[in-house]
Amino acid sequence: MKYKAAIFDMDGVLVDSEYYWQKFELKIWQRLGVDTNQEFREQIVGLGISSIAKLLKEEHDINISADKLAAELNEEAKQVYLEYCDLIPGVTELLDKLKNNSVQLSLASASPQNWVDMVIDRFSLKKYFSLTLSTRTMQIPPKPDPAVFIRAMEEMQVSPNTTLIFEDSSYGVLAGSRSGATVVAVKDGRWLTGDIEPADLVIKSFTDERLEEFLIE
Fold first, then answer.
1. Exposed, middle or buried, 15 (CB in 10 Å: 0-12/13-18/19+)?
2. Is residue 137 a contact partner of residue 112, using CB atoms and an 8 Å limit?
């Protein structure tokens, strides 16, 4: 296998949480007076909490701090991650394959660390990920800034040309591309509608035969 490291986003890549977030967030947005149309839902996919708070202020004239928004979302997060979401089909097999080929694995998410921990603990993923990074908790610039991916590569002591990034949002794909690493976009048409042109490979699922070829070519 030509890659020495792989970095995974969490929401929409490891777990199918995006689907449930669309449902559970609705009451929060309605309480804040946000017009939850399709454009808004597409805008926030892959955004960190600080970026969503900024979007609400600049485009919807809703002034809520990132900390307050995080508190509002935290109760919903417990339901999303501890009760409803499940692992994306095929991701465990992919993680096993990478680990068995001595590929270092890390997780880089815009979600707060306690949300990441919920997923890691519930699905027993700690054995795969030597490193987890939260742009929110660690105050790393959020995607599409490549900072979180660059930080992950630095900590794993690998170079971009031997690193693979798995993302499901246009912000994440752009951040991955800007980091210099190779990017695989896991495309779910229900919410990934932004620009994913920078991706080196676009797949609809981890069972796509092209992924197997991509890993070893």
1. buried
2. yes
- The Cα 33–Cα 157 span in angstroms is 45
**Tokens describing residue 114:** 């306690």
Block residue for tokens 């991701």 = 91
Give the predicted TM-score (pTM) of the model. 0.88
The C-alpha atoms of residue 193 and residue 187 are separated, in whole angstroms, by 9
- Kindly tell me the burial class for residue 178, based on how many C-beta atoms sit within 10 Å of its own C-beta (0-12, 13-18, 19 or more): middle
Q: What's the pLDDT band for 195 if we cut at 50, 70, 90? A: low
User: Residue 36 — very low, low, confident or very high, per pLDDT cuts 50/70/90?
Assistant: confident
Q: Check whether 2 has a pLDDT greater than 80.
A: yes
For residue 191, pLDDT over 60 is answered with no
Which amino acid makes up residue 150?
A: I
Structure tokens of 50? 């600080």
Distance between CA atoms of 16 and 95, rounded to whole angstroms? 16
CA distance 107 to 88: 15
